[in-house]
Amino acid sequence: MILKNWSDVLAQSFQDLWMGVVGFVPNLVVAIVIFVAGWIVGSLLGRVVSQITKSLKVDNALRSAGTEAVLNKAGFRLNAGKFLGELVKWFVIIAFLVASFDVLGLSQVNDFLQQVVLLYLPQVIVAVLILLVAALIADAMENVVKGSAKAAEVKSANFLGTVTKWAIWVFAILMALYQLGVAAAFVQTLFTGVIVALALATGLAFGLGGRDSAARVLKKLEDEA
Description:
This protein is an all-alpha fold and 225 residues long. It has two domains: 1-119; 122-220, Helix Hairpins (Orthogonal Bundle), CATH 1.10.287. 89% of the residues lie in helices and 0% in strands. It is elongated.
């Protein structure tokens, strides 16, 4: 009697397991088909975007703007077509992967991909672009400010150029952190404090460094009068 009960329990367990496998296999096949289709579509779209970017000669435009030098310093090679192509490719693949997990009923993995990857990835891209733009204009603005200050015979020309450069970097980093949603309230407060500090530093630099220049200008105006 006991053996019969155990055999019935085992038989029922194996039957339930088999029914579960039979019910899961079609969903698994559909999920695999969706993922493979996504890989193919993503690869094709990535190649199309890469070719379009190359035909538009985006690399030449970025190279003329000084982007290549910045990327080389960071250990990267300028290839906008490959970058955008890979970005589109993996975005499409992940989108199809989300659909595959949805078919399999893996809601937790699906939610993770949607919230962290599909929704957060664009924010990361924007933050990287902000830092890239800062890298492009920081050195240029430093030279412009130095040249203008030296032309005006301001003694603190180098200091003003350095302040300008690092002000751009600080603003860019704060903007990138805000874009990523990292301690938004703290970033806003810090941003305000940095603006005030830079305003005071710049005012003092102009006041002290440009004092002699201002005196010469006033003297010249008095002589002409």
